[in-house]
Specification:
mainly alpha
């Protein structure tokens, strides 16, 4: 069985031209989810104070964190 791609020992300072759109798409989606969660939290402030965090906002923020982590991970593989 052939060995698969290996993770770099240090991150690449620049991504290849083919990987840049992927990084930008991940970061854009993360920003959208973060903004949506922030807006939802602002609108639902009274609910949050009475009942705790809004689960949909928490999920959006967690997914946004993962997209940002994936964008960073590209520097180790691409």
């Amino acid at each position: 069985m052939a060995a698969g791609p290996q993770r770099r020992t240090t991150p690449a300072p620049h991504l290849s031209a083919a990987a840049v759109p992927v990084e930008l798409a991940l970061l854009a989606r993360a920003e959208f989810l973060s903004l949506r969660a922030s807006q939802r939290n602002a609108v639902n402030q009274a609910y949050i104070m009475d009942n705790g965090p809004d689960i949909e906002s928490a999920v959006d923020m967690r997914i946004a964190e993962e997209f940002r982590a994936l964008a960073e991970e590209l520097h180790w593989w691409a």
